[in-house]
Design a protein that fits this description.
137 residues, mainly beta, Jelly Rolls, five-stranded antiparallel beta sheet, four-stranded antiparallel beta sheet
Length: 137
Amino acid sequence: MAKQYRTREGSITAVDTRTPLTTLASATAESPAAIVVPKDATKLQKAIVAVGPDFAAAGSAAFFLRLEGDGLKDSPVYAPVHAAGGDIATGAVAGFPPSEVPLDADVVPGNTITPSGEMVGADIGTAAIGVTLVFTS
């Protein structure tokens, strides 16, 4: 099986809050909330994650990816994916490349995984987050 990719995105608006990533940009109306594990997948190889905070407030924050559901043999799975901070509010400008997060998690084909994003530390504003899960057999 070739690698198969499934993507979701959302906006994290508060610290210490699980934010389900349920949409897919302009295809929001067609996107189901959960990701269905491909029928021939045996592993969730990695996640590719992009995070972009707006720095509406000064401070430092870390961002986590949370994966849960019956599509994972061991659920939930947490992975740190990004950190950002500074002492300038509303004027900070930064660009961050996407992170590849190795997971090597066993999956259950046909079942679902719900990705969520979480911000911890200081509430530095709203952060857009996108995640692509990479499945293999």
